[in-house]
Write a structure and sequence with these properties.
about 55 residues; mainly alpha; elongated
Amino acid sequence: MSTDWSSGPVEGRVNDLKALKRGMFGRARLPLLRKRLLLTAASRRPQTATVVAAS
């Protein structure tokens, strides 16, 4: 059985975030860990082109 949908990209991001969390275990409190995770997730988000309509 096969499908056209793959969870590979999502699993890759989850794996990266878990590795970051493991690496920071015992070194940072929750606010810093949260900030690092959000910044890492945002930096790996695909860049999309923004179309601006001329007035």
